[in-house]
Amino acid sequence: MEIRKYLEADWDKIWPMIEKVFRAGETYSFSPDITEEEGYKAWIELPRETYVAFNKAGVIRGTYYIKPNQPGLGAHVCNCGYIVSESARGQGVASSMCEHSHGNQKNYWSVYTCSMEKISGYLAKHPEMKHGKGCLNFRKKDEVDVESMKQVIREALNRK
After folding, report:
1. Which residues pair with 54 in a beta bridge?
2. What is the per-residue pLDDT across 11-60, written as a single tens digit (0 to 9) for each?
3. Which helix (H) or strand (E) holds 12?
4. Where do the domains of the chain lie, and which CATH numbers do they carry?
């Protein structure tokens, strides 16, 4: 798996993947009736950077963006969105993109679930962890207990 910055020629390959996820209305807050133009603006134009993950054959298997969470004083906090093609799910694409995006951050990164209940298992195993209300704050990439984070993500998605 390789990851590189988005190129304009990638759009025709990633739009069908993004469109399917947005239209499902399950994981992103975009309207299920989103147009391709609106999807392009949301995934390509507004983010600071967009990346694609592809296999050895050059087939794009996933994409992610990274952008400031808020403008102005909130710009030091990033927000990432990840989408993996249906045929590549469960093959480590999202994990690779997530690790890649963390490598782009110099200070810290946070995982927001908006619920203390969702992060309680991680905090039980790592009581020294800096956190907020429903938020885990990582200072270094090597602090991440990946297996426990998978459970946090499952909890956040209401999946077991």
Report:
1. 2, 60
2. 999 999 999 999 998 888 999 999 999 999 999 999 989 999 999 999 99
3. helix 11-24
4. 1-106 (3.40.630.30), 108-160 (no CATH)
Q: Which pairing describes strands 135-138 and 130-132: parallel, antiparallel, or unpaired? A: antiparallel
Determine phi and psi for 120, rounding to 5 degrees.
Answer: -60, -35
Closest CA to 69 of 48, 51, 52: 48
Query: Where does residue 146 rank: exposed (0-12), middle (13-18), buried (19+ CB within 10 A)?
Result: exposed
Backbone CA torsion sign across 4, 6, 12, 15: positive
Q: What is the pTM of this model?
A: 0.67
CB 40 within 8 A of CB 12: no
Measure the CA–CA gap between 93 and 111, rounded to whole angstroms.
19
Distance from C-alpha of 149 to C-alpha of 152, rounded to nearest angstrom:
5
**β-pair type (2-5, 78-84):** unpaired
Q: Residue 147 carries which DSSP code?
A: H
Question: What residues are paired with 132 via a beta bridge?
Answer: 135
